[in-house]
Amino acid sequence: xxxxxxxxxxxxxAALALLLSAALAxxxxxxxxxxxxxxxxxxxxxxxxxxxxxxxDTLTAMVSLTADAAGVSSYGISLRFDSDFGDExxxxxxxxxxxxxxxxxxxxxxxxxxxxxxxxxxHVFTCEAATLGTGLTSxxxxxxxxxxxxxxGNVATDGFDIQTGVFNTGxxxxxxxxxxxxxxxxxxxxxxxxxxxxxTVLLLGLGLIGLxxxxxxxxx
Length: 220
Description:
elongated, Immunoglobulin-like, 220 residues
């Protein structure tokens, strides 16, 4: 007689575990939009979504799309930068790409760009492409656009300075191979001020101490 509640608890726990497992699997394979630094004129290390930079450095980043099980037949993706009004980056250029299996861009070039300044964040709106057949399949990736920034004198170590998304209402979106609208996971990127190496910090400290000692010498 006591087996009924026990079985109910067991099946309830098993169902919960299956739901959690499905949710985790779905999150792990969600369509993603990422941004990666691919080149710099400075000393920062490329290959990730975070880079150290100094005023005057020129940074190149790539925005890419990776499909989940629904695939991707078309997309329109935008980007914002300096949304915190830190004015750490100056827009230099953007190149809309057409990567296989996408067959055509809906319009030449990205829709519009705007420089950040003061209380105005910057944007690059709607870089897009589509195909008439099957587009990206599960796990496949394609580069969407390449963007170049110049680092300003306001660069600081903080949160994301660049964010991808569907910011151009009525134009942006990501659509699966079956035609449905998708909700990708959008990534961002950060530009951080260069942290001096320990030896550099030590030499700077010794130099400051030397200046202090010289300043205290009695005058003859």
